[in-house]
């Protein structure tokens, strides 16, 4: 990539810049299997994304370069397949919502040892809220990101609860970002159940477990039956904790175990917000605080519903993303900063040469759909590159971040495709 003068080249030297996020998750490079035969086509296993007691999740690709996730269920000691049947049944009944992971299909895998395992072929998602919390470095996330996540999860819960289901394991690890749909989605419905027909004794994860679920789990452990099953209110409790962690930037597992929390959770929420209030504008902070408190009533009947939470004043306030947000959340659009001088924008010949050079360089990493370099603000001198998919955009960000152009270090962030398509080039908060 070069300017029209031919003396400014993109350098491959790396800068010590913080703009490139680390690889996702702790992956196991020695995983098995190496291939899945899915609907008559061979898919390569690229990496294991996660492993639990009952299942492993892999990122896979086909010969057509399609990408997906496979959740392979382990054969239990009794040879049963309850976990697989449970999650398959729930997913098949709740398909079609933009904030719930898409199930492409189901298949049986026969490994070289002759063991058959049941598998789900799922939409491949990206970074989880759990990873975002780790990267927040105890500073908390921006209002834009918190609002985006809260709205997406509440939309999913509205749909889920209307269909009569309780997720029952809402936690940061089960909320993932979709780069192509630009939204957060819920995954992992292995503990989900129809409200009024709870067929799972132990629900929710420690740190995100509602008080009534704690009681029921304790009774189940003692071999006793509770009066009734848990309701959709347990999901709202979990979301309240998640949003409080996103705001504070700290894990609250020990806090929610404390006696002070059990006596008066609202007081602790107030304390957390008063400690962070200088960092955020006052009015949105109050609205977010009240929204979270509405989800954390100890009495489930007093807790907000997902539908009621969505009409909180917090969602009526528009926010701009921080530059860190656009580094953390991949999209098909890449934005290059610190590349073009104003002097290059007003000479038509130079400008066209820059466009051509930029397109040539960016096409090395994937199929470029469009490229824009605004001559005026907003976005003046920034390079916006729309790729065919977020995978290509991520590869370009990885390759271009830290390179030098005309003596300046390139900063590469992502940019919302929806805003780019509308021609909305907002100024991000630094």
Task: Explain how this protein is built.
- The model is unreliable at 1-31 (pLDDT under 50).
- The protein folds into 3 domains: 10-21 and 330-421, 2-Layer Sandwich (Alpha-Beta Plaits); 35-122, Phosphorylase Kinase, domain 1; 129-316, Transferase(Phosphotransferase) domain 1 (Transferase(Phosphotransferase), domain 1), CATH 1.10.510.
- It contains 14 helices and 17 strands.
- It is 33% helix and 19% strand.
- Strand 6 and strand 7 form a beta hairpin.
- The strands form 5 sheets. A 6-stranded antiparallel β-sheet has the order 2-3-4-5-7-6, with helices on one face. A 4-stranded antiparallel β-sheet has the order 13-14-12-17.
- Upon serum stimulation, phosphorylates CDKN1B/p27Kip1, thus controlling CDKN1B subcellular location and cell cycle progression in G1 phase. May be involved in trafficking and/or processing of RNA.
- It is an enzyme of class 2 (transferase).
Helix content: 25-40%
Number of domains: 3
**Cα-to-Cα separation, first versus last residue:** 27 Å
From the spread of the alpha carbons, the general shape counts as globular
Q: How would you sum up the major sheet?
A: 6 strands, antiparallel
Strand portion = 15-25%
Strands of the widest sheet, in order across it, are 2-3-4-5-7-6
Helix-and-strand structural type: alpha+beta
Q: Can you identify the CATH superfamily of the largest domain?
A: Transferase(Phosphotransferase) domain 1
Q: From the coordinates shown, what is the CATH architecture of the largest domain?
A: Orthogonal Bundle
Helical run tally: 14
Rg to the nearest angstrom?
24 Å
CATH topology of the largest domain: Transferase(Phosphotransferase), domain 1
The CATH class of the largest domain is Mainly Alpha
Number-wise, the strands total: 17
What is the average per-residue confidence, as pLDDT, rounded to a whole number?
A: 86
Poorly predicted ranges (pLDDT <50, ≥5 residues)?
Answer: 1-31
Keywords: ATP-binding, Kinase, Nucleotide-binding, Nucleus, RNA-binding, Serine/threonine-protein kinase, Transferase
Subcellular location: Nucleus
EC number: 2.7.11.1
Binding site for ATP: 71
